[in-house]
Amino acid sequence: MPPQPAVAPRVVLSTSSVYPESTAAGFALTRELGYDGIEIMVGVDPASADVDSVARLSEYHEVPVLAIHAPTLLLTQRVWGPDPWEKLDRAAMAAHQLGADVVVVHPPFRWQRSYASGFTEGIRRLEETTGLTFAVENMFPWRGPGGGEVRAYSPSWDCAALDVDHLTLDLSHAATSRLSSLQLVRDWGERLRHVHLTDGTDGLADEHLLPGEGDQDAAGVLAELVATGYTGHVSVEVKTRGLSRAQRAEALAASLAFTRAHLAVPAEPHG
Question: How far apart are CA 7 and CA 73, in angstroms?
């Protein structure tokens, strides 16, 4: 078995976890609750696309930015321009300015033909030229009313099928794909470089439940990360829409406590 890390992975709060509150609220809650840093979801809040503003928030709240989620979602296709390569270039520049070491990116959509055809080569080139980790996130099949799959990604929603070196595991997406996150951790091995900790069930919806509330064995996933010596970040990315600020803070505090408890590195034996 690989040696366990000397310290547990850092636990990050994704700004998408505070939606519909702002990026500024994400920084405030990260500091208040004691998370180790923040992941910026670019585009959910317009301020998230203003790198100088994010830098000021990071300095003011004394919260490090550890990851950048590039605006490659369906709803953020116009953020930082329509060209997907420009988005990734700007994500890399933001990461360097803010001190992040990983950029999360989704697989190409089917209609992004030119982007898709050169995606794996482009990702590898970006890693070589920027020194950053570009970790491609697992998505899930879109299903029509009859339950049949609608092809949305090219060549696949399954990031492990792509010829890329680094992957992001999202537990909710694994649930919607009817896969086991624990098995994916084992199958991906050293390709796994970033984790979106959440939960879900095998229904049609991408639920982003609090960890432990779905069927993805989030506790087992975290224990496996420790056992295999995982050194990336664990980013809590859950859905809190519809909650009050107090309820949101309570949910995110519980998620942090859950994550730290199951990431605890066993003490070294003495004597």
Answer: 33
Q: How many angstroms separate the CA atoms of 198 and 63, rounded?
A: 22
Q: Are 127 and 92 in contact (CB under 8 A)?
A: no
Q: What is the pLDDT of residue 269?
A: 47
Q: Tokens representing 118? A: 């050169």
- Total residues belonging to the chain: 271
Give residue 146's pLDDT.
63
Q: Kindly indicate the confidence band of residue 172, based on its pLDDT and cuts at 50, 70 and 90.
A: very high
Prediction pTM value: 0.94
Rounded (to 5) percent helix, strand, coil in the chain: 40, 15, 40
Candidates 86, 139, 81, 144; CA nearest to 115 is: 86
Q: What phi-psi label fits residue 62: left (phi over 0), alpha (psi between -120 and 50 degrees) or beta?
A: left
- Rg of the chain, C-alpha, whole Å: 18
